[in-house]
Structure formats: C-alpha cells, structure tokens
Amino acid sequence: MAKRVCYIHIGPHKTGTSSIQWFLKQNRVELLKHGYFVPESGTNHGAHHAIARKLCGQELRDHQQSAATNFAGALDGTPSEAVIVSSEELEGLFRNRDYAKAFFTRIRELNLEPKLVLFPRNQPQRINSNYTQVVKTFRQSKPFEVFVQRVTRSLGFRYSALIELADAYDAELIARPFTKKTIAHGVVPEFLRAVGLDPSQFRDPDLRRNEAAGPFTVSVARGVLRSIGGKQLKWLQAMRCKTKLAAYLEENRLADAGYCGLTTALAGQIETELRPDNDAFAQRVWGRPWAEVFDANIGQEFTPNDFEMCRPDDSTERRLGRAIREMTAIVEEILLDPALSVEAPWNDWQRRAGWTQERRSKTEKRHDDQLTPAS
C-alpha cells in the first residue's frame, strides 16, 4: 500500500486545540468520505493524547495501554488517503529526544508520512492563557510575573526547536499563525485549509471554543493551592480538583472569564526577549519577519485584572475568601482518596510532560539560581 500522509496536530496549548479536536470527533464520518481518517480518541473532547503518548513510548493507564495497537489496527481497516491525529501534548513530549525518536520511528513503521501542523501564537498572549490553564489545574500558585520569568527562559515558548525537530525526522512543518483574525474567524477553517480541505464542505466548522478563566477563578485555584502548602498534586487529583472547582463556581454563579496578568511593559519585555528566535522561525516557515505576520498582536496595550495586581472591591474580596475556604475543604477531601494518589508515571505531571529526573533537577536548580538575588 502506498504511504499515507499523517497530519499530526501538535498545538500548542491555548491555540484553539479543543475546537479542532471537537470538530474532528464530531465529523469523523464526513471526513472519511473526503479520504481523511480520524482515529477514535477515547475521550469526550476528541484529543488523541493516549495514542500520542503510547507512540512516544510512555506508560499509560491499564485501559489505555492498547491505544497504539488499536490505532494500527484501525489504519489497516481503512482505505483513506490521509490520517489526522491531534494532541497538543506532543509539542512538549517532542522535547524529549527519546520520545521523539520513538514516535517518528513508529509512524514510519505504520507506513505514514508525517506532517506537523502547528499554530504559533505571539508569546505574551500565549503565556497569559497558559497561566490560567496551569493555575486552574492546580499546578501553579506562583504570581503571574514569577511564572513569566520562568517560562520565557524555557524552550517551551520558543518555536525554532520545532524546525530542528522537523528537519531531524524529515517531516514537513505546516505552521499557521494564531492571531486575532484566527480567533475572530475560527481556528477550525484554518486547520482544514492547512490539511488540504475546503471548509465550505463542512457544516458549522467552528462548533466550540474554550474561553480562558477569569481573575476570580484564577484567584480561587491559586489561593486553594497555597492553603494546602503548595502541594504538588498527582494528575488524577488535579483533574478531580479542576472538575470540582468548575462545578463549584458554576453552582454559585461565580464563574468568570478573561483573565489578564499582562501589563503593556511586561508584554513588551517578553516580545523583546523572544524576538531573535521568533524572527528565525518566521523567516524559515513564512519568509517574513515575525512582526509582519503578527502585526495586529505585537505592541498591544494590556490592563491587568489579576487580583494580586489590582485589588478587588470589598464584596468580591469577601466572596473570594469564602470560595477559597470552601474549595480548600473540598480539595483536602480529594487528597485523602488513595485511588487518586497512585504512584505511576502516568499520574505524575512532569513525567507525563516528558521530563526525566535529570532534566527536572537541572531546571529546578537553574530556576532557583534565577530567583536568588546576587550577594
């Protein structure tokens, strides 16, 4: 059988991935009619995290261990000309060389030609959205500016490494900028065009989009994590806490959206620090400077609404205090459940992200050095 193209959507996080995955899940049958096979995800929202992790060689939960085998079997049973796999987790997993090698080796063994689909986003906006995500999943309780200081020095927000990855494994890199225009018009039509499909052939090509959490939500989650001593939660614990937090806020009519920790000056600093890497990436994939591609996103003015930067009114502060107390009690009960604290690689946040113990130790030491004032 001739080699089939495999479009591997790798995110990154907070670039419309949920919308894309939901569309793929809802339109599997229609996409197959056009020659595009989308494997079953096994998740409600349609992400192929289990397939991606297993192809990378990660250990999974018992009921997910057959993900890669099932994927291979499904491929044998379909005459499609192309395959689409979507997991934003891959952007992080590919930073681990062993995982990247295992993944692309397996893809070649399945007689698939890999093409990486990526939606780069201007970093200040991406970091702001990412902060809300890690806070509401109870992984981060540090102030926003400390988070910014850490991530701007990491490879995770630099795109040039993905060029090296694509070159190393002879995979085409299909990059589409995630801009204000993308958000306004919908990321799904742009994704369909990126993989060679006409969006007009599909009904409602942008069915949903997750809205970022707001300052109240961020403050509650951050406050709860601090109340329990900044404890590092297991993945299952964090997922349960996230679900309980969303339910609590919804039931008490406290859910909000639109968090902003950025100031105009801080956004400018981020853009300046990452400009060389961004320009190298943009020139390679688009033949233009980053600032030209993201002209409407660069140099924006921002007004922060983080409660640690802009104190809320007395009424909001009282509601916040009560929410933190009540959610802390709920979280403490969750942490007592032994079924959620099982010791396993798949239940450890950093190991799920592809971090080895050596890399964790080096990064933690570097981060401590960066935050320690010179004597």
Keywords:
375 residues; Rossmann fold; 2 domains; 18 helices
Question: Helices and strands in order, then pairings?
Answer:
Layout: E1 4-9, H1 17-26, H2 28-33, E2 36-37, H3 49-56, H4 67-76, E3 82-86, H5 89-93, H6 97-109, E4 112-118, H7 123-136, H8 144-151, H9 160-168, E5 172-175, H10 180-185, H11 187-194, H12 215-227, H13 235-251, H14 264-285, H15 290-293, H16 314-335, H17 349-352, H18 357-371
Parallel strand pairs: 1-3, 1-4, 2-3, 4-5
Helix pairs in contact: 3-6, 12-16, 13-16
How would you sum up this structure, described in words?
There is one protein chain. The protein is of the alpha/beta class and 375 residues long. It is built from 18 helices and five strands. It has helices at 17-26, 28-33, 49-56, 67-76, 89-93, 97-109, 123-136, 144-151, 160-168, 180-185, 187-194, 215-227, 235-251, 264-285, 290-293, 314-335, 349-352, 357-371, and strands spanning 4-9, 36-37, 82-86, 112-118, 172-175. A five-stranded parallel beta sheet has the order 2-3-1-4-5, sandwiched between helices.
